[in-house]
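Run Putative pterin-4-alpha-carbinolamine dehydratase through structure prediction, thanks.
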Amino acid sequence: MRVLFNSRAKHDYLSDALTLLSGWTREGEQIRRTLVIDDTQHAALTERVKVVADALHLRPEISRRADSTQIRVGHGSGEPLTEGEVLLAARIEDAYRAVTEA
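Sure, done. The structure for Putative pterin-4-alpha-carbinolamine dehydratase is below.
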């Protein structure tokens, strides 16, 4: 059974979900995370994120700067954050744990 949310409840649902993702910050209609990882971990993380993002039909921005990887999820063009984008952030956290614990 699928539950329908009105726009207010949906917004609250996404806000609640975001509070569970430590390290992610919201900037308007995007969420962002900076991870301190090495080049090998960055490559492994990027591959894992690509698989999940392709399945969700999303395109996160992933960039490498010095000793950190910056990730942005969301459109940033005035479109609201979606459940899929919050789900992608959660899967990125899973991938991050997998590549740093290996």
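The radius of gyration is 14 Å.
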